[in-house]
Amino acid sequence: MKNYLFYVGIDISKSKLDVVILEKQTPNVANHFIVEN
């Protein structure tokens, strides 16, 4: 199982969920997910 660092930020005013996944092996690479309701 790979090790991931999860950063979850919730913007209530915009009803937006911001999730950033960073791999420990490659700190320069970031997968950025934005989910809007």
Give the gist of this structure.
The protein has 37 residues and is mainly beta.
Helix content: under 10%
| Rg | 12 Å
Order of strands across the widest beta sheet?
A: 1-2-3
Biggest sheet layout: 3 strands, antiparallel
Q: Which geometry do the CA atoms define? A: elongated
Uncertain segments: none
The number of distinct structural domains comes to 1
Protein name: Transposase
Organism: Flavobacterium xinjiangense
Fold and architecture overview:
Strand 2 (16-23) and strand 3 (30-36) form a beta hairpin. 0% of the residues lie in helices and 62% in strands. It is mostly beta strands. The protein has one domain (4-36). It has a three-stranded antiparallel beta sheet, with no helix packed on it. This is Transposase. It comes from Flavobacterium xinjiangense.
